[in-house]
Amino acid sequence: MNSPVSILLKQLIHFERTGSTAVYIQVAHQIINAIQRSYLTEGTALPGTRSFSELLNIHRNTAVAIYDELASQGWVEIIPNKGTYVLVPEQKTATIKATSYRIDQVYDYSKTTGFPFQPSFHLASTNEITQKKYIINDGQPDLRLHPTHQFSRWYSASMKRKTLVSKWNQTGVSSHSAFEIQLSNYLNATRGFHIKPHNLMSTRSTEMSLYIVSQILLRPNDVVLVGNLSNYAANMAFQQVGAVIKTIPIDEHGIDVDYIKRHFTKHTIRCVYVCAHRHYPTTKTLSAERRLKLMQLAKDYQFAIIEDDYDYDFQFDGSAMLPMATSDAHGMIIYLGKLGQSLFPSFQTGFVVAPKNLISEAKNYLQILDRQGDLIQEQMLSELIYEGEMHRLIKKNILIYKERRDYLCKCLTDHFKDTVIWEKPPGGLALWLRFEPKIALVKLAEQAEANDLFLPKTILYQDKNMCCIRFGFGHLNEEEIESVVKKLKLAYDLVLE
């Protein structure tokens, strides 16, 4: 009858004779794993080479090679005329994954949990992977414009500040950070605010800002109003909390505020989400008249306004309209923004502007999600704001983006003529293109992809009344813009055939 050790080895060891790794190496690695997991303890006698070869149906010379391999690594001791015994070396080697396992399958990590949990349908990723050379996105900046060499110097200088260690080691917050002070001063100077640091919270991104605000503001079945075309990422955050999203019409002047008054009553709305400066995705600006109506309605109906100002800095023509939040005397608006969109993503930061009591609560959530933050980044951004570098960098990049917008409009005119309709926006990094006559945008994307141009589904907007694309151009230089428009026109012609 086989010994317990032989039975165990029979269960643990499995090898492939046709594999690229020699059989004796496969088996030796699995025995090492068995020793590391204490299946085989120190002092255990292994079967003799003849018995071992019969057990695994291998040649005796292979069994000898297995034991020699184990001995050379210090896992067994071979005593002549006595046997082979397991050792546990003082300096254990790194765990080695064997070619295959039976019951010893720890390194083939489980694909599913052994317990139930609630999957989140609303947070399913919208990212699409492509290897195509050209991509149209929804309006992202060009990372190639990031001043890499300057930033390496600024970042290095910030790391050497002696005050950093004390900031990391502090156990309590006795005052506002230099970054909060500089950021509030910057927003007061550039966006017309009159805030103090206690009205401000900085986050890693606008998505984090919106997530925290949603957690504070919304409960299941609360009604959130958004435009009938809205930011899909914001809708995902609202739905995850359990809010009920209801849409309101949009037109040339932004969201229809009168529609809210006609179809809703007091205390039936929890909040209205709006991109007042440039509506996402249509790029339309909410008119001054409707801004006043919306703020008055918020006061009368007692609902909050979430004002997402995702691209305020990119204003090309004239002066940017000041945020609604700068005129909020009743504490009805929560303002979300982003600083450093001309910088590499790791240097960008989101922020929330709101009354002090909401910011205090939001910071309670933030310390759970991101207690430490990035003090080096904050130190560097504080200095860039103070020294005026942030303002100069934005002004420099605005000139580049304006040229790209104008060149895109020229290329569209040259290649599409009257088949695509758009209005040149005074700012932002995207155009809203409307196809007349309507075509199947999914087929357009397929034809474009066959020609090395990728159109993600998140920029395609089509129903029975609409056939539009949000064409982001910020990440493309003029040469790339021309190539993209030509490829898009080729795909368009193929769809019409």
UniProtKB/TrEMBL annotation:
Q: What family does this chain come from, according to its entry?
A: In the C-terminal section; belongs to the class-I pyridoxal-phosphate-dependent aminotransferase family.
Tell me the organism: Mariniflexile aquimaris
| SMART domains the UniProt entry points to | HTH_GNTR (SM00345)
The protein's matches in CDD domains, at most eight in alphabetical order, are given as: AAT_like (cd00609), WHTH_GntR (cd07377)
The keyword Transcription regulation belongs to this UniProt entry's keyword annotation: yes
Q: Which residues form the HTH gntR-type domain?
A: 21-89
PANTHER family the UniProt entry points to: HTH-TYPE TRANSCRIPTIONAL REGULATORY PROTEIN GABR
What name is this protein filed under? PLP-dependent aminotransferase family protein
* Highest rank taxon of the organism: Bacteria
Example of a GO MF term: transaminase activity
Per the UniProt record, the lineage of the source organism begins with:
Bacteria, Pseudomonadati, Bacteroidota, Flavobacteriia, Flavobacteriales
Q: Which keywords fit this entry according to its UniProt record?
A: Aminotransferase, DNA-binding, Pyridoxal phosphate, Transcription, Transcription regulation, Transferase
